[in-house]
Amino acid sequence: MTAHDEVTAQTSPPRPHPITVTVNGQPVELPDREVTGLEIKQAAGAQGLPVDDRFQLSVRRGNGRYEVVDDSDQIRVHAHQEFLAVPPDDNS
């Protein structure tokens, strides 16, 4: 490694680490551990799940209960974390 490579390695931002979670029981690969609720829904839709931006996203917590994740919520995900995305109610 040259001196230039060392300086570049020290000043380069960390590279994203893709991580796989589940959305509605299906695997979804996310670009990094730090994502928003909207990014999770967009990734699920882009990977073929019938999920769009209007869906309500929830994350399963340790006690088995689900907690709503808003589009702008920044969360740190871990491998195999479970999410549930449900379509909005249409009471018209």
List strands and helices in order, with pairings.
Blueprint: H1 3-11, E1 19-23, E2 26-30, E3 34-36, H2 37-46, E4 56-60, E5 66-69, E6 74-76, E7 82-86
Parallel strand pairs: 1-7
Antiparallel strand pairs: 1-2, 3-6, 4-5, 4-7
Protein name: Multi-ubiquitin domain-containing protein
InterPro entries: Multi-ubiquitin_dom
Region (Disordered): 1-24
Folded structure, characterized:
The longest helix is centred in the middle third of the chain and has 10 residues, at 37-46. Strands 2-1-7-4-5 form a 5-stranded mixed beta sheet, with helices on one face. It has a two-stranded antiparallel sheet with strand order 3-6. The chain has 2 helices and 7 strands. The chain is globular. The protein is of the alpha+beta class. It has helices at 3-11, 37-46, and strands at 19-23, 26-30, 34-36, 56-60, 66-69, 74-76, 82-86. The termini are far apart.
